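dumping the sequnces here before i forget
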Amino acid sequence: MSTFRVAGRGRIDRSRPIRFTFDGRTVQGYEGDTVASALLANGTHLMGRSFKYHRPRGAVTAGSDEPNALVGTRRGPGRFEPNTRATMQEIYEGLRTESQNRWPSLGFDVGGVNDRFYMLFSAGFYYKTFMWPRSFWDKVYEPVIRAAAGLGKPPTEPDPDRYASRFLHCDVLVIGAGPAGLAAALTAGRSGAKVVLVDEQSEMGGSLLSEPSVEIEGQPAWDWIAATMAELASMDNVRLMNRTTAIGYYHQNMVGLCQKLTDHLPVPPEGAPRERMWKVRAGEVVLAQGALERPLVFDGNDRPGVMLAGAAQTYLNRFGVLVGRRAVVVTSHDSAWYAAFDLADAGCKVAAIVDTRAEVMSALREQARVRGIEVLPSHTVTGTAGRLRVKSVRVNPVVNGKVGAARSLDCEALLMSGGWTPSLHLFSHTKGSLHWDEEAEAFLPGRKTEACRIAGAGRGLWGIGKALEDGAKAGAAAARALGHEAEAKSLAVANDREGRGVTHKELPTDRDPGRARAFIDFQNDVTAKDIRLAVREGMRSIEHVKRYTTNGMATDQGKMSNMNGLAIAADAVGKAPPQVGLTTFRPPYTPTTFGAFAGYHRGSHFEVTRKTPIDSWAEEHGAVYEPVSLWRRARYFPRGNEDMRAAVARECRMTRASVGIFDASTLGKIEVAGPDAVEFMNRMYTNPWTKLAAGRCRYGLLLGEDGYIRDDGVIGRLSNDRFHVTTTTGGAARVLGMMEDYLQTEWPDLRVWVTSTTEQWATIALNGPNARNLLAPFVEGQDMSDEAFPHMSVAECTVAGFPARLFRMSFTGELGFEINVPARHGRALWEKLWEAGQEYDICPYGTETMHVLRAEKGYIIVGQDTDGTVTPDDAGFGWAVGRKKPDFVGKRSLTRPDIVAPGRKQLVGLLTDEPDVVLEEGAQIVADPDQPKPMTMLGHVTSSYWSETLGRSIALALVAGGHGREGETLHVPMPDRTITAKVTGTVFFDPENTRIKL
Amino acid sequence: MLLIHCPYCEQDLPELEFAYGGEAHIARPADPSALTDEEWRDYLFIRSNPRGVHFERWRHVHGCARFFNAVRETVGDKFLMTYKTGEPRPSEEEVEARLKELSA
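..and the predicted 3d for all of it:
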């Protein structure tokens, strides 16, 4: 294979050859190469196929704005990344890369047939073509189109890499290490300010890396970079971060940085994170991101070999690669002339410089003449030829707006430049305003919302000298704003390449513009014609044009396409570009891995897992867990080969037959104490508390001000001024927050303190006919007789020698106790009860059995049987409302018209006609299963179980007007059949409550 | 991520420590039973939802746990000031002055 490497050029290390593969073929490059530069050095321009039309594509840029040269990179199992920009990926020994979106091969791609039928895939094609027959969309069109479209394939294995996150605070954050950024960092660094300088490239220097002929302070540019980097590195107050992209600019000068740490290393250090996400809070930000070169829009501007002139200059000067031996330049900006000169001086035959402008600086013309380059002013490009690589370009003169006769120029590379767009993505993230600058024909930064400064090409300044000067000023101003003494030192610059240009919509052509394949968004295959079509079809807002055509919506975020899209849309609408406006830029600036965002929050670190003091016992005894809010709770304890249904049936049987033991530690607990505790409880909960004696407890119901049930739980009065409140497991924090809200903001006069004690207590529930027999011998300090300690009592005593709060209460309908002991004693008490309980055939049960036993008794679970629209009356809990109290939270709402209106959904029991059929929770309920669809739904099943006790299924449901429907048969339509069920009361078992008695 | 000034801790702290608490200066009526259905509806549901300056409640939930009030400009999403529960609502002049200060 021929090599396009140029002796003596570039910053690559020729003493360190590196081999990698591209589509299985071994390619050799040097340290310092990117995948793109190494491929180009070997004469390979064809790097991928386009998204929609599968057109052959090559690298069009040399940076992060690359839309075409996307490859998959692979290093071992799980380490595959699609859509990596070949222009950014550094090569390392053993790197494997592959082209995308082609089958069977990059050179011959079946999907390329799409390109022949491009008329079918115009803007918004999915709204218009492939519509008939209707049934074909789901089965034929969509699967075929989806298989053919798209970019890289997502990886299929879990990502084995680690990702880190860090916070960082600094005085001045400088984003971009080109001339402006380096000058800013140097000036701010010398002032003593704490400076962070970041750049997305592997080495700092920005455009200076592509401009070695410029001299700064008498030094060649690269020597100046080296000296500057050395000085910056020597400053303790400066942090330099390369391979680091500022992905987003957020409120109050917070900037997200994604730092790539290992993707350039042949062997990453063991355990090293692949990327690190930094959240930087900066006193001042200097945005020195420079400008992005704009392509020209003409037929065939996407062929491999057609690239931005600045990119060709970078490949030559930074990587020592000639992008072709014979080139044509087409431009509307002076910068491309310098690229042409550099290429010509390196041995490339530049056949012509085609400039759309009539007038060009005579100095440039003179330099072209010296090099023997033909100059074609007032010319346009009207087409290119070549299947997998550009072979020739069609150029025409333009005289008085008329396109003249075409001639064809042979070339291996066509270098284009449509001017430069200030890179204002990050500035736009801050909602800073942009204003249209007529002279620059570009949007420039306007009103700022953050403490930031834009320096250099980002605010339309062109040339190395101006960028250095502006950067130094911005760095000094930023440092001074933070109280440092700083001075912007001016730097002498020689051989600077200043210039100017004009911008265009599509280049004029003598051919039918409707047939031109003139691309604007290369990655999403959007052409000029698509934009004009969108406007013709009624899209007027640039945001609509963007969404209809998908212009600027690819992974390059419109870096290349936005301004051309805007210019053409504005022309089609008949307005000036500033009146049409720019679409909104959003983070991240470049594609960022999910890993970097997730950081440490993955696997078991994704969320905390709360465990009770008894959790370890459950684990040792084979518990199957379920998550309940952040807790993991034992769901059931299978014996032998039992499945869940068998285990739960046995746990239910054993508990109702003798005694079951249950870990209720996750229940929320709040200590309410103070002289006004009773008054506070009266105002918060629906129930009356004044007459509840110390030593007694009561079921409490908590509403929102809207009258709907928020939480419930048994509340014990320990003394006149102290309550032990329990809440649902998931509602603990919410209830505490609600109490604090009222205490702090509505009733600050009440002398009450509320404290979360959820994790202070381990709670063990004993239920069953033998519960007291098992427990009583352990209890000291409390008479356990029915008279001294009746149902719904609470006492402070000792149990097995541990200080305890002992409740006699039941969530199963059996004789029951809940023993609260300090959390550290929880497991010890459990084990003592377990040991003593063997005599009674004690059974540990989990949350599933708890659910079945409570449902058999019609006890509700807030959040399962209620959904935030259920009042106490709807739930059948009217008895728990102290209507004589003057006020409590939500009381006024209980007489709102909607809440007293008939037809509300009310909680009822459901018994299926076939007792073996267990309804599905969430299933919808209708009165008439034969009514036309969509059916009128009366409500839904909230709880449904197999009841071992009753030998049949049971269910609770919310049904419109449910309390008046007892005895009615309702229908539950399911995909395969309709189930019938009778409406009943909610208590299925022991309605007289005989079993809770002694 | 915003930095929010807790008027109790007297520190600027990350948004992560705070929870939004709805519009401020909507006192619970002393005697809800005396209210008409319409008045109670307004208390429950009707909020100003302005484009611009908004008086709102925040809670330093993962810090001192106190509720406090804040004035936030909802377009630029910027806190103009925060103050303790029970302190008077800042005057229009104070808010205007702060807005000017921030946009300078």
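Chain A touches chain B at residues 250-252, 254, 279, 281, 431, 449, 705-706, 737, 740-741, 744-746, 748, 886-887, 891-893, 896-897 (CB under 8 Å).
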